[in-house]
Amino acid sequence: MTTIDLQALIPNNVHLGENRQLQRALEHWQPAFLNWWDEMGPSDFKANEVYLRTAVGVDASGWASYGYTPMPDYRWGIFLADKEEGRKIGFGDHKGEDVWQDVPGEYRSTFRRLIVTQGDTEPASVEQQRLLGHTAPSLYDLRNLFQVNVEEGRHLWAMVYLLHAHFGRDGREEAEELLMRHSGDADKPRILGTFNEPMDNWLSFFMFTYFTDRDGKFQLKSFAESAFDPLARTTRFMLTEEAHHMFVGETGIGRVIKRTMEVMKELDTEDSVTLRKAGVIDLPTIQKFMNYWFSTSLDLFGSEASSNAANYFAGGIKGRPDEAKFADHVELDTEMQITVPDGMGGMKSQTISCRNGMNEVTRLEYVKDCNVGVTRWNMGIKRAGVNIELKLPSIRFRRQVGMWAGVTTTPEGQPISATEFEARKADWLPTVEDTAFVKSLMNKVTDPGKMAAWIAPPDRGINAQAVAYEYVRL
Ligand SMILES: [Fe+2]
Ligand SMILES: [Fe+2]
Question: pTM value?
């Protein structure tokens, strides 16, 4: 097992000290990163000590240590999962060959683009969330927000390391650009649309960490299969960190629902107006936020049929999540069915090659994973004796990328006219009023153990600490 050099200016387990040129280049980028964190990271709270976990190893057992640290002193570094000796390429045209320790020339620009796109999302989410600290519903939640933020910062480091180590001057330029684009910036926005959407309330934050971070999980799972071994190893360790982000989302939404159930019982009502007056978020509003964040996250997987996706698979660049569980790892002449619009207001089945359908395969795995949490939330609702079920909309609903882009459908995925969609949109997606209502609940709560009135406390604290632990020293 590799050990992490925690004393180095840049903590790492890649023997950075043995490659002076690379070390110097990264040490040159480091102040720019810290400057970005200072300007674009969480506003305020710079001097406050936060109970954060920091990576101290890369093995599954006990990889992190917990302690108080002001965020600007967080030990951002470069941590790759251990090398698997004799690892072979697991899929595509190069299946069975040795994995690559450097990028083959023919795939250089493709890898660069993919790494930059992944890297761009990491600081983007920190920028989107930079004001949320001011309205945190508890110290526990404030700490979780900051944990997610510092780890997204570290994920940027993970991608920048690859750019510096394997892409020469182009890579160094890209690394600088990653700090220049900003979420929502009119001139230099982040690359992907979802990462330019404003994030001004905690319900959206929980939806983002549940649905959008989970897209990240599936991208990383695909990269974890890559023939380019350093990419596979770095994304494997990122996945270890990422799990907490989705935990924050799943339990966050679960706690919002739990609190709503309590008030529904207390007041013996399902009426949204009454519940809103009582200061909790009614289930139809939660459903609308789900519809919004799920559909926007689906777009991140790309088009249903994609020759790029086929090339990534063929070249060993990007596999399917958990590639080993598929029967055929080459998919040379295999086919699959997808559902597409028929151009006459209906839909039809279309046959495409499996290689072309890789985005769709990954998207469907993602949907399955999303449903796990929804099932748990519904169990909570049922236990409370309420006869309402939350439901993910169809993958055809409100798409802006792929075959269904711009085709108006019901949440069940039935194509309807644009006029009908407009008329019913307010039942399916958050309205200006819905968002304003959710925002009206956002007030900072800072007493240890206290929660805002719209959210239940978590079942347990972080790292076996009490819920009432002072997670952030204000
Ligand atoms: Fe990340
Ligand atoms: Fe994340």
Answer: 0.97
